[in-house]
């Protein structure tokens, strides 16, 4: 190699090696400091694109899992409400069954009707007020019409012969009107759509509106139950015979009223069971969806980590190697810079 003052090839080579070692050392230290293999697009352009897509999927899956948790909680709230409806109807059917027995007195029927009425009021309360996040779930959509029921008093008394005397006209005490309640989420004809994945096609539709709304739905059945009165004989017309035969006739009508209540309650309980079955099936489905989503998220996270995360053992070895190369390059740069002094030595000779 020729000796030259203007061009020192050894010094330039050592300087390039030093710069390269320092650059790689800086990269290794940055990776070890952040824990990421890709900190800028220059580190791995293709890997950055793949990692960004995987990160978006992982984030979407996390939101979908929260959606599933919220959906499950909502459906469990509704199912719990329907479960309580079922318990109340069980008790109401027991009362109707007891009322059908001929051993009951009028006071017995009155007591059973009092409990029957309060239980029916709680049925309506659950249907109207069961909510999730401030939104009603079960109440039927308002139709703008009202249910009007006349309330009449029919006084009856026995004459001296023991016959029941019926007045010509009953006295009308008043009318009771009841408007339909505002519509709930489960009554929506389109059902409820839950986003259970990170893509547009991953949705779950829960629709039980047919079982809830309309005269044949649960709401209509509960409305019909409100019209039953276990304390009044079916037909509402007192008997006109003598005491003993009159009482027998009235008790027969009580049995018919109670049996009508039993039939309607059985149908309503069957409707509740159908609704609970649908809700339970969807709750179970959401559980499996959440489990599958967790597995997908774990695997996607692992793939993301393989691309994005730094391997500390490998990177620590790289850093040590670059530190040694930087030190040796600096030493060789010092030695190459001394070669220019050899020219001065030749000139002195």
Automatic annotation (TrEMBL):
<dbReference type="GO" id="GO:0005198">
    <property type="term" value="F:structural molecule activity"/>
</dbReference>
<feature type="domain" description="Flagellin C-terminal">
    <location>
        <begin position="263"/>
        <end position="346"/>
    </location>
</feature>
<comment type="similarity">
    <text>Belongs to the bacterial flagellin family.</text>
</comment>
<dbReference type="Pfam" id="PF00669">
    <property type="entry name" value="Flagellin_N"/>
</dbReference>
<dbReference type="InterPro" id="IPR046358">
    <property type="entry name" value="Flagellin_C"/>
</dbReference>
<keyword id="KW-0975">Bacterial flagellum</keyword>
<dbReference type="InterPro" id="IPR001492">
    <property type="entry name" value="Flagellin"/>
</dbReference>
<comment type="function">
    <text>Flagellin is the subunit protein which polymerizes to form the filaments of bacterial flagella.</text>
</comment>
<protein>
    <recommendedName>
        <fullName>Flagellin</fullName>
    </recommendedName>
</protein>
<feature type="domain" description="Flagellin N-terminal">
    <location>
        <begin position="5"/>
        <end position="140"/>
    </location>
</feature>
<keyword id="KW-0282">Flagellum</keyword>
<keyword id="KW-0964">Secreted</keyword>
<dbReference type="GO" id="GO:0005576">
    <property type="term" value="C:extracellular region"/>
</dbReference>
<keyword id="KW-0175">Coiled coil</keyword>
<keyword id="KW-0969">Cilium</keyword>
<dbReference type="Pfam" id="PF00700">
    <property type="entry name" value="Flagellin_C"/>
</dbReference>
<dbReference type="InterPro" id="IPR001029">
    <property type="entry name" value="Flagellin_N"/>
</dbReference>
<feature type="coiled-coil region">
    <location>
        <begin position="102"/>
        <end position="129"/>
    </location>
</feature>
<keyword id="KW-0966">Cell projection</keyword>
<dbReference type="GO" id="GO:0009288">
    <property type="term" value="C:bacterial-type flagellum"/>
</dbReference>
